[in-house]
Amino acid sequence: MPLLTYRQTRPWASAIREQVLERHMPPWFADPRSANPQWPLANDPSLTRAEIDTLSKWAKSGAPAGSPSNAPKPRVWPVGWSIPKLDAVFEMPRAFDVPASGEVEYQYVVIPTGFTEDKWVQQVEVRPGARSVVHHAVIYIREPSSRWLREAKPGIPYSIPEDEPEHRRLWTTSDLLVVYAPGNPPVRLPQGMAKLIPARSDLVLQMHYQPNGHAAHDKTRVGLVFSRKPVQKRVLTLQMGNDRFIIPPGHPHFPVEVSGTLPNRAELLSLFPHMHLRGSSFEFDMIPPGGKRQVLLLVDHYSFHWQLSYQFAKPVPLAAGTRLDWLAYYDNSAGNPDNPDPTEAVRYGEQSRSEMMIGFFDVAVPRDVDKQRFFVRRR
């Protein structure tokens, strides 16, 4: 429902009071008790205690309109793109028809950029054409030398055959430009940092559609803003995940974990947990070489419906050899209202009825370091 005017908002006053008192709104799931004061999060939209008290008292007093003479000027909302003055826009050449029901295999759409020179990208926005059925969109940067999905014709949605080996179906060494999921705003990287799209690269859109009872037509677009200033640091999107687990039927708190050691030093910019309908919490920890375990982020109430990226106010330095531990918990019980079927054992899978355990994280590295070079371990 729109909440732009008093007339639109007044009927929802009691519901607004309840939502803010229970801290369901605005959506934010980072546990403040685990926060490290050294590394505050920049995009926390949580209301202050005073703001919550103001809304609560307003609702309890009958939600009066107040004096029109004291009203602020109406806010001007962006029309279309949230990022103004885009430098380049890429769109799926043809719409994909999403059926009203059933499951849709992941669709891959190759879009040539036509760039004849390297481009440093500082801002990215993904705009699905049919937001209600786009479960997620992962935008990859396919370098000219990559052989990944070369059988896919540009602009034509392509699904990888199920009989292909799993590693070819799910993984690629190409860097990620951006991961879109409901609730995620456009990406705006800090000044002096940017993503590199090499000349002659393609964008590969991995589209996961979720039918919702109504047929839809989607033509997702990707908008870019190039860096206006010299770039000192290249941003890479990395991920650690576990695809070898079985969640027992009815289990209310099943753990799945993954660990890795950082091959080279980097600066951590953001964290983004990804699970499906049974995900309940996700913890990101690090152990510096010779140091003690430190919590980077605890998402204590994961929500499949609001998949948020958690951005640090300033980069977190990570030394080479830092151990990264991700720990996720899943609620496969009947007490989980989102659970598709608490009687079945759940494994890793692409569709929402299955599960995933992936922790994405953005790091800043020297300008001349690409993803392959970053993973070369020095003795």
State Rg: 22 Å
Q: Main sheet, how many strands, which sense, barrel? A: 9 strands, mixed
Average pLDDT: 93
Point out poorly predicted stretches. none
What order do the SSEs take from the amino end to the carboxyl end, as H and E? HHHEEEEEHEEEEEEEEEEEEEEEEH
The percentage helix is under 10%
Determine the structural class based on helices, strands and strand pairing.
Answer: mainly beta
Question: How does this model look, in words?
Answer:
- There is one protein chain.
- The radius of gyration is 22 Å and the shape is globular.
- 28% of the residues are buried.
- With 379 residues, it is mainly β.
- The protein has 5 helices and 21 strands.
- Helices cover 9% and strands 35% of the residues.
Structure characteristics:
mainly beta, 21 strands, 9-stranded mixed beta sheet, 4-stranded antiparallel beta sheet, 9% helix, globular
Quick structural summary:
The chain is mainly β and 379 residues long.
Spell out the blueprint of helices and strands.
Elements (H helix, E strand, L loop, with lengths): L5 H4 L3 H9 L27 H12 L27 E4 L4 E3 L8 E6 L6 E9 L6 E9 L23 H5 L4 E6 L6 E2 L4 E5 L4 E8 L6 E3 L2 E6 L6 E9 L4 E2 L6 E8 L4 E9 L4 E9 L6 E6 L10 E9 L4 E8 L15 E2 L10 E9 L4 H4 L5
Parallel strand pairs: 8-12
Antiparallel strand pairs: 1-11, 2-10, 3-9, 4-7, 4-8, 4-11, 5-6, 5-9, 12-21, 13-20, 14-19, 15-18, 15-21, 16-17, 16-19
